[in-house]
Structure formats: structure tokens, C-alpha cells
Amino acid sequence: MADPKGFMTTPREEWPRRPVEERVRDWDEVYVPGALLPIISKQADRCMDCGVPFCHDACPLGNLIPEWNDLVSREDWRRASDRLHATNNFPEFTGRLCPAPCEAGCVLAINQPAVTIKNVECAIADHAWAEGFASPRPPERLSGRTVAVIGSGPTGLAAAQQLTRAGHTVAVYEKDDRLGGLMRYGIPEFKMEKRHLDRRLGQMRAEGTKFRTSVTVGRDVRATELRARYDAVVIATGATAWRELSVPGRELDGIQQAMEYLPLANRVCEGDLTESPMSAAGKHVVIVGGGDTGADCLGTALRERAASVTQLDIYAQPGAERDEDLEPWPTYPKIYRLSAAHEEARDLETAPSADADARLFAASTLRFTGDESGHVRSLHLVEVDEARLPVPGTGRTLPADLVLLALGFSGPDREDGLIDQLGVATAPRGTVSRDAGFATNVPGVFAAGDAARGQSLIVWAIAEGRAVAAAVDRYLTGSSQLPSPITPYDRPMTV
After folding, report:
1. What residues have CB less than 8 Å from 454, skipping those under 6 apart?
2. Which of 4, 12, 423, 425 could form a disulfide with 433 if both were Cys (CB 3.0 to 4.6 A apart)?
3. Residue 199: which residues within 8 A CB-CB, separation 6 or more?
4. Which pathway or pathways does this protein act in (predicted)?
5. Helix/strand/coil (H, E, C) string of 251-289?
6. What's the whole-number average pLDDT of the chain?
7. What is the 3-state secondary structure (H, E, C) of the chain?
């Protein structure tokens, strides 16, 4: 480490966000442009040479965090980029979208604010692009083997890039008209501008990866035909089967799934639409679900000028500090966090009845009621206890012209026929079954990412893509030099 006392003398300083009143008027990223580089070297100095870096285990990618922190503190950006890209194909994505379990595992976080690992990662990635350190790396020779990757989310792209660099001919099939999966149409522009995605896709094309958009495998091309055409197939479709809310009034108009709502707002940003047909403009919006997808809906509704926005979370409001008995370091704790969208809602006072920012905690939806035309107008809720049982006398009603369901996902969508046509086995919860080598019960067919693991974080998605690439490479050639950071059975650090 460059400064042995950095963690004692330098306070934590994060990438500053733009003023709320400014950023809700546009779709640009929420952070102040150019404000990260001036502070990041000193922040990297806070890495304390702890000896046993638990941040390695907290991150499924096994990122070499102390190494690139030290290099950044010395402003050796090229070597820092090399160490970062050695374990992570897309650090500009994770540096913006990951909730940073590595910071929860930082040894400094035992009794001080953690090192700003996520910000350092993002700074390295952006600097690498600016200085030309992220040039394409096409293979020196081709293996003559072909691989089809179904899905262009972070898992599919990571697998495709690794396999392409190993010399295989890889084609990525994507059902949407543009590449990126949920990073394209699920993640709002204000969290990650799509230029970062397009730039990385350009690198992959230059390396030799082929892309096939607007192709739904199982519908536009039979899955069995694809399997016959390629030496191996990787299922990386993600977990897109959304969970439902079975309460009276669910059939009313104006009650939408989050992943019906968010893609339309992203298409407005892409220039496909002038206005979303599900726009929240002038409406009282209620979001059911307290996770990141719900927060994405919140920030989107604010930018569409909703009359009010309230987010319901069935869990009780967490405390501001880690509960050392229930969630000891270095696990990722459930604490009160203020995302950019929640900060905006708090400052703009978009939900006067909320407990904090725009959220109502320990709240469960009972039913919806509508008007004579069959459109939703009200959401009826009740407070719940720790067992999620209704608390008598706590019922209340919220105005609701637009209700967004952000309740998570259960596994891959079966409607396109991909799973059934291939005949791959599935687990009781709906995910694709696989063995310790990421292989399904169908020879030559592998599964990775949320489609097999279940809904998870972007770092786990990329780690799955890298690991399945090594498994496929081994299947095709008998051995592999590709890194395999995780097994299908690895899980986040918990109590």
C-alpha cells in the first residue's frame, strides 16, 4: 500500500451525485461527471493491507481488490486495468450496478466506513477506456469449434467473450432487437448509460463474437435445430418469469409488471418512442416490492413526472447499523440504504404518507379497487408483523392510478419453448438443473446465470458466465486455461 496510514487519516468520500432537482429533469447518470478521478487515488489509499482480504471472498469474481487499490493509489492506471480485467470482463457495469458485497467484507468495515471499492473499480474501468487500455483481444488461432450462447445479459456476454478469446466461434442469440438483456431494457439510463454497454459490445465484435438479435430460440428457430448446428449451447436467458400478486382486483387495468413498464421508458431513451404508453405522468403510482427493481421504477416514475409515488416493502424498516448478532461481518447486512431514487423521492416529498423517503415498510397489499371503466384507482394495504401476519386496525388506502409489481422472478420463461424443446431438466423452483460442471442432462447443453442459479446480482452473473465458459472449453477441447471463479453450488456469504 502506498500510504500505510491512509485508512486512519483519510475519511471515506464517495462519488458525488448531481443535485436532485437537476437530475430528475433528465435521464443522464446521477453522478457528477468528472468528479470521481480527483478523489479516487486518496480513497484507494485507505485500503489497509489487511493480510487476509475478505473482500476477495465477498466478491464471487475473486477481484484482486488490494492489488488494484495499491496501483490506483500510485496512479499506475494501466497495470490497475490489467489486474481488474483479469477477473472481471465488464467492470464498468459492476462499478455502476453492483451493490458491492465486497465493501461489506472489507476488513476496515469492522469498525469504520469501508474502502470505496466500487468507486475505485468504476474509475479504473472508465480510465481504461479513455486511455485505450481496453483494446480488443482477438484469439491468435481458431479452434474450429462452435458455440451458441442464448441470451445477451451479463452471463451470456461474459461467457461469449471468454469463449471467443479461447479461439471458439461464438454466436450470441438475443430475443430483443438490441443486445444487453436487462442491462439494456431493465436498467434505467440514469443508473447506467447505454453507451457503456455499446462500447463493450463493439470490443466483442472486434474480437470476433457474432450476434443475432430479434431471434427467440424456441420460436424463431427451434432449440433442437440450434443444438444440431453448434458443438455446444449455453442457456443464459436469465430469470424472466416474474412473480405475480394474487389479490382481489389484480385484473384491473393499470396494474403492470415492472418489466412491462421499465423497457418502455428505456425505449424512449433509445429514441424508439416519444413517450411511454405506460407513462406515470400525472398519476398516483404505487410500487409493490422493496427491492432494486422497485427502486428503478421509482426513479423512472419521478422522471416521468408522476403526481405521487409510494413504494411498499413487506419487510420492516432495517436499522442504520449492522446487527452483529444476526448479520456479523463480513456478511452483506440488511441495513437502511438510500439509493439515488430514494434520495430523490425524499427530497421531492413524492410520498407524504411514507415511513421514509418513498417507502412504506412492513406493508402488505390486500386488494385493489377501480372505477366504473375497470381501471385501478386505489390500493388497500395493511401493516404486517415479523411473521408477515396482518396487524389489526392498521388498514389504509392509497390512491393508485398506476400500480407496478416488482416482486422478483422465479426462473426462465417457458413460453418460448426453449426449455421443453431441448428437454433439459428443471428444478422444482423452475430454474434449469445442472451438474457441478454447469452441464444439463442434455449432452453439450450448459446452463448459467439466473436461468440456473435464480435471481441474483450482476457480479454473480458475470462469475457464472466466466465459469461456464471454462466448462464449455473443457468439454470441447479436453482441458481449459480459462478461469473458473465459482461452482454452481457456491452461494453468497451468509450466517
Report:
1. 239, 410, 411, 429, 431
2. 425
3. 129
4. Amino-acid biosynthesis
5. CCECEEEHHHHHHHHHHHHHCCCCCCCCCCCCCEEEEEC
6. 96
7. CCCCCHHHHCCCCCCCECCHHHHCCCCCCCECCCCCHHHHHHHHCCCCCCCCCHHHHHCCCCCCHHHHHHHHHCCCHHHHHHHHHCCCCCHHHHHHHCCCHHHHCCHHHHCCCCCCHHHHHHHHHHHHHHHCCCCCCCCCCCCCCEEEEECCCHHHHHHHHHHHHCCCEEEEECCCCCCCCHHHHCCCCCCCCHHHHHHHHHHHHHHCCEEECCCCECCCECHHHHHHHCCEEEECCCCCCECCCCCCCCCCECEEEHHHHHHHHHHHHHCCCCCCCCCCCCCEEEEECCCHHHHHHHHHHHHCCCCEEEEEECCCCCCCCCCCCCCCCCCCCCCCCCCHHHHHHHHHCCCCCCCECCEEECEEEEEEEECCCCEEEEEEEEEECCCCCECCCCCEEEECCEEEECCCECCCCCCCCHHHHHCCCECCCCCECCCCCCECCCCCEEECCHHHHCCCCHHHHHHHHHHHHHHHHHHHHCCCCCCCCCCCCCCCCCC
**Confidence class of residue 4 from pLDDT cuts 50, 70 and 90?**
confident
pLDDT digits (tens, 9 = 90+) for 420-448: 999 999 999 999 999 999 999 999 999 99
Supply the Cα-derived Rg of the chain in whole angstroms. Answer: 23
Taking the whole predicted model, whether its pTM rises above 0.85 is answered as: yes
Q: Answer left, alpha or beta for residue 51, where phi above 0 means left and psi between -120 and 50 means alpha.
A: left
Instruction: Please report, to the nearest 10 degrees, the dihedral formed by the alpha carbons of residues 188, 192, 196, 198 taken in order.
Output: -10
